[in-house]
Write a structure and sequence with these properties.
By secondary structure, the chain is α/β, with parallel strands linked by helices. Helices cover 43% and strands 13% of the residues. It is built from 24 helices and 17 strands. The strands form 4 sheets. A 7-stranded parallel sheet has the order 9-10-11-12-13-14-15. Strands 2-3-4-1-5 form a 5-stranded parallel sheet, with helices on both faces. A 3-stranded antiparallel sheet has the order 6-8-7. The model is unreliable at 88-100, 615-619 and 625-665 (pLDDT under 50).
Length: 682
Amino acid sequence: MQAFLRAAELMKKKDELLKVWAEQIRDLSYDIEDSLDEFKVHIESQTLFRQLVKLRERHRIAIRIHNLKSRVEEVSSRNTRYSLVKPISSGTEIDMDSYAEDIRNQSARNVDEAELVGFSDSKKRLLEMIDTNANDGPAKVICVVGMGGLGKTALSRKIFESEEDIRKNFPCNAWITVSQSFHRIELLKDMIRQLLGPSSLDQLLQELQGKVVVQVHHLSEYLIEELKEKRYFVVLDDLWILHDWNWINEIAFPKNNKKGSRIVITTRNVDLAEKCATASLVYHLDFLQMNDAITLLLRKTNKNHEDMESNKNMQKMVERIVNKCGRLPLAILTIGAVLATKQVSEWEKFYEHLPSELEINPSLEALRRMVTLGYNHLPSHLKPCFLYLSIFPEDFEIKRNRLVGRWIAEGFVRPKVGMTTKDVGESYFNELINRSMIQRSRVGIAGKIKTCRIHDIIRDITVSISRQENFVLLPMGDGSDLVQENTRHIAFHGSMSCKTGLDWSIIRSLAIFGDRPKSLAHAVCPDQLRMLRVLDLEDVTFLITQKDFDRIALLCHLKYLSIGYSSSIYSLPRSIGKLQGLQTLNMPSTYIAALPSEISKLQCLHTLRCIRQFDYDNFSLNHPMKCITNTICLPKVFTPLVSRDDRAKQIAELHMATKSCWSESFGVKVPKGIGKLRDLQV
């Protein structure tokens, strides 16, 4: 089923029927996973009572499996009936490539206006890297990298078209748009046409006509031979895959050219740029400075600084819009073009409805395509990981450990030989960073990324994609959140409530940011959430009470539980031992004095953080051993008292309980059996 989904993903944007079919397959796969999880829980139960109940439960599950088999047969026959999933022909590749190139051309035209604002320093720095005056030595590769919409193509195009810098110094030059897929023979023909002239290509094809079918090697041998003694400048715009660069480099460029030739590559992928570039010739294009971003927006809306200074409301809106655009040139120019058709008094209304405008307004198509192009190019295992980011509020700083832990709990992370699940999850995180889909925010001393952010505009479009894919429900409280039948993930931002009709029994993840939702007034984990895997309450602003968690053990599929700093919980129920799949238990601020012995039964638990509220002022780092009353050796240590980097050797053992000579015990006592949990990291 996953293979069918991957095949359908490539074609569904051009076939509405296939899109519907793919959604049915996805919902069916979710239902099958739910049934398997539920059956596993019942099988693992060992009590006599449960053994008796199992007979009835097995009968119920057997009926569900029979129904699922019928649904599988139906969707399979539907594919056969309508021939929905077909092999992707070479013609389809060309079609997809021209579609991608249309997107590139439209975006480049929009951003090209930005070269007048804030690009002069970037142009100067890139020209220094290119070093146009060095007319000898081997060819060098310079990479321009950054997220979509920053103006990589516009900057490179401005340099490419410079008579003084390029045309005068490089007799042969070519601009090649690589995009996500390309036809190899057509690419080589285009390079010959631009580098050597149309007549050279015509003459070559005429010589080959009637003798052989034109193959890649015919064009390659001719191009390499002709470029051996020529100085060339080539831009490979919008490179996505390292394999494509390796092929082009091998098949198109001579190895012994010593004329100081230059190749400029534009890409969104940092890792690819570093592997392609010569030495350290990677230019990271950044966002516009605030003043430049404001100037660009004013220019696009046919306003000036005097207009803004004389109108405080306009000044406020300009700053809000620029902040919303995240100083991204394409966003500023695209949104500015729409604002130019409106009165300043209408700007605020447009701003408030920007998320919905991004979905439906044809004038904002370039922005949508900027994001969907990157999303469509993600490998299948990264797509749900990326859409999952739509759960978090706008401009939210997302912790790496939190995100990866949730991915693992959701089953998004696929095991790899020789790697822990967490290592694989972190490789997913780093890949999204390298692909410029998310932005690094805070970096640790060792250079490891601790937190990330998602650009506001990208988040809005990601929320739109999530809604279309029926992936995440974000209740708005204004009647706009149409509850779809099979929503699996829900996130409340504030005290919003969702419409009736939501099937809580299939919800896999629940996250709350801000106030208590009206839908969960009585308890944050109601009995209906029987398939819940993730319960994230790390950023609630209301008080989480003991009552909220008295029935936590009913969530038998729970794998991730995180409670924030607003908590009055004083004990964990002993029934928590029933949560056999629990992987992460994060309670950074509670009144819990001791963990129940049943914690030691949680064989899947790998992350445990439990801190009792107390005053750190009375703890002395000069005599840490005097304060430790219970220690256990575990592979990794987290402590609120000493930073990981400065931790002394004597605190290289986990302490979950502290007792000082100035006060009573402030720590959390752990049961002796916790040492049996060998995978635990605390």
